[in-house]
Each structure stands twice: as C-alpha cells, then as structure tokens.
Amino acid sequence: MVPISYTQDTLGPIARTIKDAAVALTIMAGVGYDARDNTTALVPASQIGKDYSASIYGGSLKGLRIGLLQGFYNRTNSSETTPVNEAMDETAAVLRSAGAVLVSINETVYNATAIGRLDVQQAEFREAMDAYLSDQTLKGSHPSTLQELYGGSGFVVLPSGYNYVKNSLRSSTSNASYAISHLAIRDLTLTLRATFAKNNLDAIIYPEQKNLVVPIGSPSQTGRNGILAALTGYPVVTVPAGFSTQSKTAPIGIPIGMEILGLPWQEDKLINTAARLGDLMHARRMPSYANRSVEVPHYTQVPTITPNISTVPDAYPVGSLGI
C-alpha cells in the first residue's frame, strides 16, 4: 500500500462475500507486529492469530443493540436520497424482525459534513510519501519525493485530483490547523466510545453514502459517510443494503451500501452480524455485465488509444504527457 495519511490509512479486504472478506482479513491480520506501523503494537493478545472466517458461523441478531446514526442520513425527499433512506429503513425493519433492538442516535456531533472538515490527508500526504519513496527497501528506479513524482514532466494524476495534489505539496503537519484537527479527532473518538457505552451498543449502522453513487467518470461524489471510521480508526464492514429503481442507465438499479461500525478489535462481531443479516436480506445482485459473454478481439499488436481530453480542466497540464 502506498501511504497517504498515517492518521486515516486503513487496510481492509474488498470481497464478493463476507466469507471471502473474513478469509482475507485473517491473512492480512496474521502478519503480526510491523516496526513501521505503530498500530500493530496495540493489537490485544486475544486477537493475534485469530481465524476471522470462523466468525461467520453461528450467532444471532436477536438481542443485539444497534444504533441508528440519524446525523448520517439526508431525509430530504429526492431521486438521489429517497432510495437510500428506503433501503436503510427496510434494513432496519429486517433487523427488528430478527430481534435486534434499534436505538436512535441523535447527537449533533455526528454530522458527516462537519466531521469531514477534520480530514488531515492533505497535511500528511507529502511527508508520508517522501518517507515511503526514500525507504531503502523500495527497489528499482523511482522518484525520491512527492514533488519529484508529481513535479516532473511525466507525472499522471486524474484531473479531479489535481487540486488535491497541489494542496498536498504545500501542506504539512506543521500547519496550525493540523494540530487543531487532531485534537478534534481525539475528542470525536472519545465521544464515539461514550456513545457506545451510554447506549450499551453492539454496533452502529448508517448508509455508506447519503445519496446514490454517481456514474463512473463523474468529477466528484458527495454525501460520503466513511469519514467517521477513517478518523476514529473504529472498524466497519460495508454490506449491500438494496438498490434504487431500475433505469436505462442502471439496468439492475444503483447499489446502496450500509456501514456496520463496531468497537476496536471487535471485527469478529461485525463479521457475524453482517453474515446473519446477509442470510435474511440477500441484497446483492449480479452485475449485468457478468451475465453475458464478451467477444475479445484478437490483436496482432497493441491498439492505439486516443483519449478524449475535451472535458479536462485547463489546470491539468496534459501537454506534458504528449497528448
């Protein structure tokens, strides 16, 4: 993994099934202590060598206390938000019918927009990458700094990320705002733990995004809720919660995700909760492209691809790429 932010970087598996994710997590977590990653020194003895794939079996949703994080919903009725809210409400109904106790969490601190302002990635990106690129274990010919990587004549960065990179090159952890953000992140983490304790919660759920995901190629995605876990380091498992209505551009509907957030070192409980919920909902749908055969042309040489740069902002120096 190439580092971006040592405060927010978190490795985790992406898989088609919860079982596959649990198997992958078992391997990843089995690496043990890494001197280059201080977090690995905090792993409790009870978690070392744990087989997370065993967590998908047994268990029950009955009696679980699950918080509904109301501040992470957008209850405005619209074609972008209503499908998300309906899918989440249906999931909540399934949980209740299975015997789970749902607790409404209305604390104003849980505002994803406000929490998003605590993001410290740009302040840490340059320093983290400079350390990574100068690591003696990194083999081959490569730039030694982020400035060299992105400041040369052959750098490549997606147009939508151009400003992000420019800001990162002039930001650092010595900025006054960085220390203030870190204090706020610590307060948020302590508040989250207090919310779990006060309500005796096993997990907290909320939509992965307040609104539907945008089409591939769109300049940005709004309404993201993943920032809470990223900043606090609390574990989450993201599962399918449903789909929007089918349309011409979305033949099976647009997928809607839900995050299940738990206390640190309780990944096994989250995995079991996700597995039991999956048994009841069967929310995943096979992508339409996976249901048909695709004829692959036989090329005698590598085809020439000419990208369409008509929508690339002027700030993006495509001329340096010879385009």
Strand content: 5-15%
Alpha-carbon distance between the two ends: 29 Å
User: What is the name of the CATH architecture of the domain at 18-120 and 177-291?
Assistant: Alpha-Beta Complex
Quaternary structure annotation: single chain
Which topology of the domain at 18-120 and 177-291 does CATH recognise?
Amidase signature (AS) enzymes
Q: How would you concisely characterize the structure shown here?
A:
The chain is of the alpha/beta class. It has helices at residues 18-29, 82-97, 112-116, 121-133, 146-151, 162-169, 176-199, 227-232, 267-281; strands at residues 65-69, 101-105, 203-207, 236-243, 255-261. The chain has a five-stranded mixed sheet, with helices on both faces.
Keywords:
Amidase signature (AS) enzymes, 33% helix, five-stranded mixed sheet, 323 residues, alpha/beta
